[in-house]
Structure formats: C-alpha cells, structure tokens
C-alpha cells in the first residue's frame, strides 16, 4: 500500500511539473518583445494606406503580428484611454489634458514624429479651375457664400481633417449648410469624381496609394493647388512643396505609444522612424522626417566592368 501511495505521489508530482513546464514554455513563446509577439495599433483612418504598408513589411521582417484598427481621430484617441497598453497613430500630439490622463495612470506616452502629411483639396476633373484660395475655404466653412464653391465634402464628422479645418476656420463644428460628410476618404473621392462643383477634403495618401477598385475614381479628380493665407502663389500637395513649407495644409504625424513597457509599440515606432520605414514614407508621397540616404558606386573603368 505504501509503495502504491509513493508511486501515485511521484506520478502526481510529475504531472504538476510537466503542466507548469508547458505553461512556462507557452508563456515564453508568446512573450511580447520589441520585435516579437502581437499588438493592436489604432490608426486615424486618414492615414491608413501608408500605415498598412508599414505593418506589412514589419510583419514580414520580424516575428510580429499587428492588428491594425482604423477609426476616426476622436475614436482613436478614445481607444488610447480605454484600452490597456494602447498604441495609436495620429496627425497631432496629445493635448495637455490628454497627457494628464496618462499621468494619473502613471504612464509616460512615448511620442515619435515620423512624417509630414498633407490635407488635399480635390475637385472633379471637369472643373476648369484647379486653384483654390484657403481664405475662400475658411469663409465658406464660417457660413459665408463663396460663388466658386458649391459645397465641401469631408470624410467623417469626427475625423482629423474636420478638426484640422475647423481649427483653421475658428469654428467648433462644421456648418449644416453646404458642408457634407461621409464615413471614409474613399467615399469622398468617389462622390467628388461623380459630382462637379464639389470640393472634397482628404488625406493626400488616399490619392497617391489608392486601392485598385478606387483608381478610376482617383483618375477623375484633381488635387487642387492651394493659395495660402499669406501667399499670392498656389501650390500642389507634393513632397517638394511640403518639404519647402510652401503647401499651406501640411501636418506632422505621430506614433503615440502608451504601452508603458518595452513592447511591440517601441519596436514598431523605431521601425517606422528608421531607414526602411522612412523609405516607405517617401514612396507613399508623404514627407519622411529623415530623407533616406543613397549609396552611389562610382566606377573608374567602365570597359573593365563590362569584361
């Protein structure tokens, strides 16, 4: 009987040891590091195309899985507060009041500026005028009649473009008359491509990197040249004009990492701000914070190289 009890005890002990060993193995396997594991990233819908490219390359390069969730700016910021260990990508930094919320949680958000974006104003291809004055856009948003503007179309009432343009116009909410909103940038592009006289307001990345199904609609709109408030000249939302600060509707882009530990948020931010990530930014039509270098090989003897 004693031998039976001893055998049962050792069998039980072996099972317990095996159980904890398996759990520990799984735990170490699933442990998140800066280049391994899984994480959720909330992104302002206006910036989705270029961030999708970043995530695809990052996942292929490392043992990482990032779940990208596109929302309006207001919803993205709310996700930062509600979700534990949240990561968000925005076209603005946190406000003083928002930063205080994380101070109460004893979390210091790590903020990385990685690019400069442009808010593009678009019109139907059939419109003859390809120049618009920013003062006219602001005046229209303030409720005034502007003969050259039939209406303005935004992506979402809670989007970063609405917040950005409202701030320029000095208003708290878009007027009900003559200003319309949908849910996405694609819907704005499609509507403007099918309706003359309307001006759409979208992130420039949606024009430079459209989905295949959207190409025909993008081809039927023009990105307008915008005349700034203190300028007599109008400029298109190109990388060069953004870099030279000529285009008046440019804004910096931020990765807000509120994980509070060294996880994928830190690794992803470093990747996007690094050489590969900045090359992706450059290719997307946005302006990277650091222009990637180019290695040039100078050959002394072309004839010898051919041989």
TrEMBL record:
Start and end residues of each PBP domain: 38-274
PROSITE patterns linked to this entry: PROKAR_LIPOPROTEIN
Keyword Phosphoprotein attributed: no
Keyword annotations from UniProtKB, A to Z: Signal
Gene3D superfamilies the UniProt entry points to: Periplasmic binding protein-like II
Family matches, as InterPro entries: PBP_domain, Phosphate_ABC_transporter
Superkingdom assignment: Bacteria
The keyword Nuclease is annotated on this UniProt entry: no
A Pfam family this chain is assigned to: PBP_like_2
Alphabetical list of SUPFAM superfamilies matching this protein: Periplasmic binding protein-like II (SSF53850)
Protein's recorded name: PstS family phosphate ABC transporter substrate-binding protein
